# Entry
Amino acid sequence: MAAQKYDVFISYRRDGGENFATILYERLTAKGYRVFQDVEEMNPGDFNTQLLDIIEGCTDFVVVCSGGALDRCANEGDWVRREIAHALQLGKNVVPVLLRNFAWPANLPEDLAELPNKAGVESLSGQAKTTAAAIDTLCGQFMRSRPVKRTKKMAVLGVAALLLVAALAVGGILLFGDSKKPEDLQAKLTEMGFTSSLVGDELEITTYGGAAKRLEIPEGVAHIGDKAFKENKTLEEIILPKGLTHIGSESFYLCSNLTSVVLPEELAVIGGSAFSLCSKLSSIKLPKGLTAIGDFAFSYCTALRIQIPENVAEIGAVAMVPCAAVSVDDANPYFCAENSILYNKDKTRLLQFPQIFTEDMQAIAQSVTEIADFAFCRSAIDFVTLPDGLLDIGRAAFSYCDNLETVVIPPSVKQIQTDAFGDCLILATVEIPASVTSGIHNGAFTGSSPTIRCAKGSYAESYAKTHGFPYEYI
# Structure
């Protein structure tokens, strides 16, 4: 039997690349592409030659380049290497997608030597909005295949299949719903005060001009568009429909009276600032199907206690600061939380620190080696004990911490990024040990005026002199 025909083959390494590969598969499939996601269930020694046939039949071959993804390609029997080499040999349109922390190995095997020269999408941040934009770029600029358009024949076959499933489900009795054409649903939405548009064959709400306190959006809407309800002052409760998959950026931004939102199980993406500054929002349950939460999505939802469900693989910067409480489903393989402090699963990366905290929250896990961008932004913290093995303090990590007075940098630190301690108004002293010999970015203390405590003749002393900061010797 001939292998099923696909447009796109996604190759990836399970450790580090699986979450992005899954999101890429879902979004390309939703756009109409026929996509094969290599589920990487076989051992390298049992490489399935059927995969070679699938690669041969596809047009585009997408390589998800996560951190260290190609390091094992030095092994001649490595599965990922064999996939890529086969695609290159066949002259397929090979497109590398470079994720954060990826670096090309110093030496690639000869059969992969062409790969770094292939045009692709670079430097994904892992944040929902950026990922969506990058996937659009991938489709529009780099892929050669085009989405499959549903024909009338396909639609008839699809309906027949659905009716068969319904018949089996109810013991041979067919149940019919109130099926409506998109234009009929658009007319109904217009009567309710919405404007809407078709994106491909999916319906998107673009604006709402009504003044209802409670809304239930009818089934058939797949997307809530960017800024659709932005700054609505009357809406208090909304029920979003079954089948909705995407809530756009700033969709409910500054809906100051919104208290309750019901989300469908199919929802996959909540865009950047979607519910930002909804200060009265206290009731929302994130569905199991959710995979991505954008930057600032729930920022300043101060009444909200939020649990991250098991399938969320992306959480943007400042996504839930300062919510009342944050927890993570134990089954989530990517994130965990302790005392509302959000970490990656193995607690090597601190992602978000609550603005509202108790004294026991100030004990950061000793396993942390990286403090993410904006992790403590606008926190009311007045001191913090940084772990001994810390390597990297991210961009704007402690920015606008108005109560922070003293910081002691651990000897292990290699990088203090731009604006790491920016605009900390009363920051008085920063102690930097002699072991820190590089890596303090020029704008690390922009808007702050600390005294640098340092060893005589150290890198920290030179930094203080160069940037005009007062200093004193330890």
